[in-house]
Amino acid sequence: MIRSLCVFCGSSPGVDPVHAEAARALGGALGRAGIDLVYGGGRVGLMGIVADSAMAAGVRATGVIPRSLAALEVEHRGLDALHIVGSMHERKAMMADLADGFIALSGGIGTFEELFEIWTWGQLGDHRKPVALLNVAGFYDKLTGFIDDVVVAGFLREEHRHMLMVESDPDALVARMQAYRPPQLEKWIGRDQR
Description:
Elements: E1 4-8, H1 18-33, E2 36-39, H2 45-56, E3 61-66, H3 67-70, E4 81-85, H4 88-98, E5 102-104, H5 109-123, E6 131-134, H6 141-152, H7 158-161, E7 164-167, H8 170-178, H9 185-188
Parallel strand pairs: 1-2, 1-5, 2-3, 3-4, 5-6, 6-7
Helix pairs in contact: 1-2, 1-8
């Protein structure tokens, strides 16, 4: 059962306002589904937008931020809960523990790193939670095309590729994550896993 979703996203709003609109729409979709938000705890960029829209839609927003970033006063002080931790490693571990699934919105290298790490943890069987991309205006098209090429090249198994959901509509993505059923453990981790 999905009670909370972790959203990875940019600390910038991006150049095209479509990304900010998608962050607002995702916060609204979480509210309509009654799903709480877990995220990186910032008040700037897409991070602040998704948190504010989720709370405006009636669900809780929990932030997790490293002390080094909180000291720069980028933490969101209006959240339902804010955890200040010692490092980025602690941040990611706590977000993973608090959430029942993970969505990457548009973002930069920090967002990519969080997405790939949590997807890798799933591939290795460290969690059995859904992982997804909200593909805003084709933002992730080239990345998903490359990932498909990695499958063809034999470096990613097809079942692990399918662990990464991709949708362009926030409500459709949230509904798909609610319907998610993890594969059997035997399929999750193969003997020849690389």
